[in-house]
């Protein structure tokens, strides 16, 4: 007889990964998606766009969320990747739209903040792999952006300076198994309401 250790299948999770450029948001999402059978929904760059462009991006994001609701994948696991910045009403509007969709689809939402030492972030952002995605390379700019990063209340913060992408994804999976207490989180201004 063969003993097989079968873990409970993780389903119905919306994972919202945020962090500074170079913190490994997308790389983590790619590894995590294969571990939990999830679809990655990468954030759209609207922080530097005009108001008209941001409104169009927001409307497009809502159409995408409607498609997710209408045609969910079997696991109902989705990973949203974005930078949540303080005082950015578009970040908050899109985040709240994702929260609303999570409620409609009866999923749990787990906000994850990837933290990284500023010197490690600087190294990562000037590496060859990051050249196309480079947003900041100056250590002072990284520190300034870190102060503007919006951290949802009850978010799981993962310090990943000395972790591989796989270790970060495994930590998130571990947190998913522990998670289940919060049904919804809303953002109003810079505050989250549960």
TrEMBL record:
Entry superkingdom: Bacteria
Cross-referenced InterPro entries: P-loop_NTPase
Name of the protein: Uncharacterized protein
Originating species: Wolbachia endosymbiont of Aleurodicus floccissimus
Lineage, top ranks: Bacteria, Pseudomonadati, Pseudomonadota, Alphaproteobacteria, Rickettsiales
